[in-house]
Design brief:
It is globular and about 55 Å long. It has a 7-stranded mixed sheet. The protein has a two-stranded antiparallel sheet with strand order 3-4. It has a domain at about 5-45 and about 130-285: HAD superfamily/HAD-like (Rossmann fold, 3-Layer(aba) Sandwich). Helix 3 (about 65-80) runs antiparallel to helix 4 (about 85-105). It is α/β, with parallel strands linked by helices. It has helices spanning about 10-20, 50-55, 65-80, 85-105, 110-125, 135-140, 155-165, 210-215, 250-260, 275-285, and strands at about 5, 25-30, 40, 45, 145-155, 170-175, 180, 185-190, 220-225, 240-245, 265.
Length: about 290
């Protein structure tokens, strides 16, 4: 099976031509982070999410990892269930995230630990940007294209990771779970509404300060690795949307559904090459 699938080539080409005609100044990009801008598999193993990385690497007190694993065992079945009602799943996810963040505070998470974790992720290659992501970020930076990263992960750690890659530029806005800190750098709580894997449609971009910069950017390029990532555009009025989905596993089960929601599907933990070629067309980069 090819690594690239375009369910409706004619419709995609129509969207591309319209976006190119209107010019790059009307373009914005919205993306997930874990397993979208980063690889889903490294050395044959599923890559840890940023939250899971903290859990597995034992940065905090000795009781943190077993308690965090217990929460995972209890709530992950809700997250992946195909039969439970949506509201029941969302309620379970909120409880999971809220309880986990409370646990992180109790177990001593601080700024120094977040900074150390970001550096070690790169040095040990435990979290790797998807091939072509650096070029993707550079193209957007050069043309000052707004990039919104919406993630259910830890925003402070995510930004630290981008800083380690020297990729956190002014055109990037991260909407994620950010912490409040005390004077000693200890985490005291979570800022704003908790973002989990199933409520991105409720975290509307129009409620954030960046929305004023995006109002006139009526063309959207959206990247994600789950069906829920489509909901990141909730609350935005747009003219053209090109949605690109990374289907990293369970292809036989999920591909028919992905074809209904994404204009482009990249399989087998593929590269950003298609997206970069698309951006070159839109941004007129030779």
């Amino acid at each position: 099976m090819d690594t690239l699938i375009i369910p409706n080539p004619i419709l995609l080409e129509k969207k591309k031509k319209e976006i190119i005609l209107q010019g790059h100044r009307k373009l914005q990009v919205i993306t997930d982070f874990d397993k979208t801008l980063t690889k889903a598999f490294v050395k044959g193993e599923c890559v840890l999410s940023l939250i899971t990385y903290l859990r597995n690497k034992k940065y905090l007190t000795e009781d943190y990892s077993p308690k965090a694993f217990a929460l995972y065992e209890k709530y992950h079945p809700y997250e992946i269930s195909l039969t439970l009602p949506r509201k029941e799943k969302e309620k379970a996810m909120h409880t999971w995230w809220k309880t986990h963040f409370k646990l992180l505070i109790e177990c001593g998470l601080d700024k120094a630990t977040l900074k150390k974790a970001a550096a070690e992720m790169i040095n040990e290659q435990d979290v790797i940007l998807r091939e072509g992501t650096s070029s993707f970020l550079s193209f957007l930076k050069e043309r000052r294209i707004p990039l919104v990263i919406m993630s259910a992960s830890l925003g402070d750690l995510l930004k630290g990771l981008l800083q380690q890659h020297q990729s956190l530029s002014k055109n990037i806005t991260v909407i994620s779970n950010f912490f409040n800190f005390d004077r000693k750098g200890k985490v005291t709580g979570v800022k704003n509404t908790i973002i989990h894997s199933l409520n991105k449609r409720e975290i509307e971009i129009k409620k954030h300060p960046v929305f004023k910069r995006l109002e006139k950017k009526k063309n959207i390029l959206l990247l994600g690795d789950s069906l829920e990532d489509i909901e990141m555009i909730q609350g935005l009025k747009y003219e053209n949307l090109i949605s690109i989905g990374f289907l990293n596993e369970k292809e036989d089960e999920l591909l028919p559904v992905y074809k209904q929601y994404f204009d482009v599907i990249i399989l087998k933990d593929g590269t950003m090459n298609y997206i970069n070629d698309l951006l070159k067309e839109i941004l007129n980069i030779s």
